[in-house]
Amino acid sequence: MDEIAKYNVERWQALAQANAVFTRPHLDLDKDSARKYLDPQRRLGEVTGQDVLCLAAGGGQQSVAFALLGANVTVVDISEAQLRRDAEAASHYNVNLNLLQGDMRDLLHLGEKSFDIVWHPYSLNFVPDARVVFREIARVLRVGGIYHFTCANPFFIGLGGTDWNGNGYTLRLPYVDGSEITYQDESWIYGGENPDEPIRKCKEYRHTLSTLVNGLIEQGFSVLNLSELNYGTPDFEAEPGTPEHLTSIAPPWLNFWATYRPML
Ligand SMILES: C[S@@+](CC[C@H](N)C(=O)[O-])C[C@H]1O[C@@H](n2cnc3c(N)ncnc32)[C@H](O)[C@@H]1O
């Protein structure tokens, strides 16, 4: 395990202990709410019987939602603590999940062309080289399969409420692909609870827009849709420095839908 993997194992262990939002399993889903949660715009077709890889998606949220919709679900996550949440959620719903501890940069333990969907919630920015991950995903996806991922908006990664300068939010970090960015977690990550100080830092890596788009193209993906995500509904009247205000001005996340269609 390299330093990047070790850092993430330790961080997600601490986040799970602190009951951070992304470590809380969803235990109140039914088929309708599972579909709305995963796919509010109804871009996915029928998923019953489909082989779905929830990549770096531990925590007991997306995995059980797909399982409730009748998919065959594998979860790969580096954190044992997060996979334990999946196991708890699976037993709550009495569904099966194939839970594997592993690194998104190395999926060699998974068979070639073994998935119809790769569902990759926010986590690509926890590793410095997005292209390595895209290459692994291209190997395990079937032709025509769907790759969905959420990542940091490369223009605003690392920008926080404390960057409000009375007039705007100050961009100060170099726009360099793979550059390390360390910043304070926003308090909403802990759902209003106060964790111990050492957890309140986050180490990520910038993936520039050209790396994301060209990286997908190089591996044979076609982009079907790209959207910017805010923290709730944009609210330009919100108090400056709050997540609502910051993210109305600088949407923090991008959501990509792609399909694997290599030129044969
Ligand atoms: C924000 S959570 C995303 C999943 C969560 N289910 C959700 O609802 O957002 C990020 C996940 O990425 C995992 N992770 C971090 N680095 C990883 C790596 N290199 N390989 C695989 N998983 C990783 C963490 O353990 C964590 O469970």
Task: Please describe what this structure looks like.
The chain is an alpha/beta fold. It has a single domain (3-34, 45-260), classed as Rossmann fold (3-Layer(aba) Sandwich). It is 27% helix and 22% strand. The protein has seven helices and nine strands. Strands 3-2-1-4-5-9-8 form a seven-stranded mixed sheet, with helices on both faces. The chain has a two-stranded antiparallel sheet with strand order 6-7. β2, α4 and β3 (98-101) form a beta-alpha-beta unit. α2 (31-38) crosses α3. The mean pLDDT is 93. Bound molecules: S-adenosylmethionine (SAM). The site of S-adenosylmethionine has 21 residues, from α1.
Radius of gyration: 18 Å
Bound chemical compounds = S-adenosylmethionine
Number of helices: 7
Helices and strands, in order, run as HHEHEHEEHEEEHEHE
Q: From the 3D structure, determine the CATH topology.
A: Rossmann fold
Biggest β-sheet strands, sense, barrel: 7 strands, mixed
* CATH architectural grouping: 3-Layer(aba) Sandwich
Question: Any idea what the CATH superfamily is called?
Answer: Vaccinia Virus protein VP39
CATH class: Alpha Beta
Q: Roughly how much helix do the residues carry, as a percent range?
A: 25-40%
Regarding quaternary structure, what we see is: single chain
Distance between the termini: 35 Å
Number of domains: 1
Shape: globular
* Structural class by sheet pairing and helices: alpha/beta
